[in-house]
Amino acid sequence: MKALLLAGGLGTRLRPLTENLPKPMAPVGNRPWLEHVLLHLKRQGIDEFVIAVKHYPEIIKERLGDGRRLGVQIEYSVERSLLGTAGAIKNAESLLSDRFLVVNADIVHNMSILPLLEFHLQHKGLVTIGLTEVEDPSQYGVVQQDSTGEILCFIEKPKRNEAPSRRVNAGIYVMDKEALQWIPKNKEVSIEKETFPLLIEHRAVYGTKVDGYWMDMGTNERYRKVHWDLLDRKFPLPLNEIEQDTGIWVGEDTQIGSGVLFLPPVLIGDEVHIGDRSVIGPYAVIGDRCVIGKHVRCSETIMWDGCKVHDAAQLNNCIFGYDLELEARHILYQAVMNRMTGVVQG
Ligand code: GTP
């Protein structure tokens, strides 16, 4: 069975980090999330992928190519204009198998897909939606189901005490190709707002709970949360770095100056330089080849590969995109910055 990864959205809520980067290529634990998705699904026996791309497709193609480096096979479905989450699936139709998996590539998860497939084989519907249980359903569209698992409707943002369940669409589906007849060609169509309601009317949509970690990384706040969960190992994503001491992961060829203090949890990538007497952590993720000066303080901060932070800077609660350079003695709190677009607070 092939998996179709939806990776073409603009990622507007994660700007400026996604200004010139597809959101699923944002690193999680120092590696593009999309790469983690491929490896996670490969571990579950899926090795044929179609990636639906639109926003900066060349960045995805350059990094992942035909997939050989990761031991998988990748084809691309390229959109000329944004087609939305259903339009993108329709656009990829000729590349898909009779039954296929669809994954929103910006959902950070470690879910097992086998229960989803098994459930799909047990009913007569055309779609099985993976459902995840959330604490507060009032922020989401929750499902109402009957005892067979058929989805009767989605109820958008219900009040806490009026929600029929705490189950929401996890952004992972098994679909039969037959379902694609309900999606018009070359038109922007949303699967959540248009296709699912139509298919629900035709009694073709079922849902089942999938267990495991789940987080939509679409906002700065949730992107941070994914990292803190990763460092706390609530999200036990496999990491390339070695855990040298409890909660301190360090990559290869990293040079650490004298008197540097790591306050766990911290994740430091490969070929990083950290100057004397800097204090890193708690909650810091430093990408590969970052250079950090002397006497820097850096906590609750995520730095992508290639950043330079000069001496005595103080950083708290920041996210820096690739190759950002920060002057000496800069004090930043809650800044989200990209080399091209500058600072945004949030
Ligand atoms: P926002 O602009 O912040 O809402 O983000 P988004 O539109 O990129 O993401 P959203 O959460 O709305 O979409 C879920 C997934 O579908 C993400 O992985 C997107 O990359 C992907 N996606 C959304 N729209 C399209 C599209 O038009 N084409 C393709 N190929 N993928 C899409």
Automatic annotation (TrEMBL):
Segments traversing the membrane: none
CDD domains for this protein: NTP_transferase
Domain Nucleotidyl transferase: start-end pairs: 2-231
UniProt keyword Nucleotidyltransferase, yes or no: yes
Segments forming domain Mannose-1-phosphate guanyltransferase C-terminal: 263-328
Gene3D superfamilies per the UniProt record, alphabetical: Hexapeptide repeat proteins, Spore Coat Polysaccharide Biosynthesis Protein SpsA, Chain A
InterPro entries: GMPPB_C, Mannose-1P_guanyltransferase, NTP_transferase_dom, Nucleotide-diphossugar_trans, Trimer_LpxA-like_sf
The keyword Transferase is assigned to this record: yes
Gene Ontology MF term list: nucleotidyltransferase activity
Stored SUPFAM superfamilies: Nucleotide-diphospho-sugar transferases, Trimeric LpxA-like enzymes
Keywords in alphabetical order: Nucleotidyltransferase, Transferase
Family indicated by similarity: Belongs to the transferase hexapeptide repeat family.
Protein name: Mannose-1-phosphate guanylyltransferase
Source species: Effusibacillus lacus
